User: Fold this.
Amino acid sequence: MDEFETFDPALFGLWAERPVYGDGPAMEDAALADEVRGVLLETKSAEGAISPAEELRGLLNEMTVEMRDQFATFRRMRASAEKALTDGDEAAQKLARADMKAATDAMSLIVRTLEKVDGLQRQLARDRELEAERAADEGGYEEAKARFMKLIEERANENAVRLYEAWKRDGPPPSVTELLERKASKPPDSTVGAGEDSGQGIGGFDQTPARDTADT
Assistant:
């Protein structure tokens, strides 16, 4: 039973959504702080914004506070029972032993439950960190991709303007001039096809021997 004397339930504290370093902002104006606490806030519109994981975190925090208070209560109960074992009569000692057993069992259950709650809180914290890292990685990739595509577009526009200015100043480059001349000297495909078809028709007509009607 000595482990309960050295056990500190304050070790199982409340878990914040994100780690907070340093003390929170101090309210210097006590009157203003009391006035703010008395203001009723409309919270229905924000109910849907709370994630299930955040609701679970809040529930586990409430359970931690409640069990810490219960642990302190059973510790005082056991201390009173120990005192009755030494100072009370036989009936009081018998009742004190029953109270000590019940208090010890309850404290053991509270300790195990606090450990499980703390494990769940740690798992939630790890899941939040992994989710934050994943979201940061995805956001960073999309941002880098958009920045890279914009850089390509800017460089392409700069090259297009430079080539256009050079074209206006010096005329088309030799490779473009050669390509234009080659295209201009080559007849369209439709003309070539029509000529070939007409030539084949004439040649076929000329090469076909005339039938002698007198032989028939």
User: Anything to note?
Assistant: Confidence is low (pLDDT under 50) at residues 194-210.
